[in-house]
Amino acid sequence: MNEHLEQLKEIRSMMERSSKFLSLSGLSGISAGICALAGAWYAHQKIHIDGLYLLFDPNVRNEIVPLLLIDAIVVLISALISGVFFTVRKTNKQGLSAWNSTSKRLLGTMMIPLLAGGIFCLGMLYHGFFWLCFPATLIFYGIALVNASKYTVHDTFYLGISEIILGIISLFLAKWNLIFWAIGFGVLHIIYGAVVYFRYEKK
């Protein structure tokens, strides 16, 4: 009887591995969160001076925006590099490949809302509404995570919903949108990464 139960558990485990990408490391989320918090701290130094929110000041906004774009690119590249490193390291330990049919489907479901969000933000920049990029990135990223949750751990779904909610709130509290951005991409990523690590990896 116990032997049959073990076989059923093994079959279930194999089916889950074939349909879900379970090799995403929790350390990837933690490292991405740390990168986001560092980037948010830098951005805060540039757009808040003596209580003034400089993105609303057209006289200095054009000087600040290029610096913030560079900051965002550095954060994105750093998060991607650390994420790939920890995920590949985990898959190597498991004797698996990080690039397989499931990870391709995962990436595909994320790319549509991420590309749409990126183009939307470029439009906001073109029209001078830079501060709307903060809530927009949260919302579109949240939608991407909700889509991707079908192919990875279910905790990703709750992270995505949380990002969307933060983005919507941020739309109506423009002077605080950098704080919401830091919470969404920084704090929530660290919490998510820690949950994934201790729930699925630290066994």
Give a nutshell description of this structure.
Keywords: Membrane, Transmembrane, Transmembrane helix. With 203 residues, the chain is an all-alpha fold.
Structure explained in plain terms:
Keywords: Membrane, Transmembrane, Transmembrane helix. The chain crosses the membrane at residues 21-44, 64-86, 106-123, 129-149, 156-173, 179-198. With 203 residues, the chain is mainly alpha-helical. The chain has one domain (23-201). Helix content is 79%, strand content 2%. The chain has helices spanning 2-19, 26-47, 58-94, 101-126, 133-148, 155-171, 177-201, and strands at residues 48-49, 52-53. Helix 2 packs antiparallel against helix 7 (177-201). The radius of gyration is 19 Å and the shape is elongated. It starts with a helix and ends with a helix.
Instruction: Give the beta-strand count.
Output: 2
Radius of gyration: 19 Å
- Biggest sheet layout: 2 strands, antiparallel
Helicity level, as a percent range? over 70%
Oligomer: single chain
The run of helices and strands is HHEEHHHHH
Mean pLDDT equals 80
State the main characteristics.
203 residues, mainly alpha, two-stranded antiparallel sheet, 2 strands, elongated, transmembrane, membrane, transmembrane helix
List the helices and strands and how they pair.
Elements: H1 2-19, H2 26-47, E1 48-49, E2 52-53, H3 58-94, H4 101-126, H5 133-148, H6 155-171, H7 177-201
Antiparallel strand pairs: 1-2
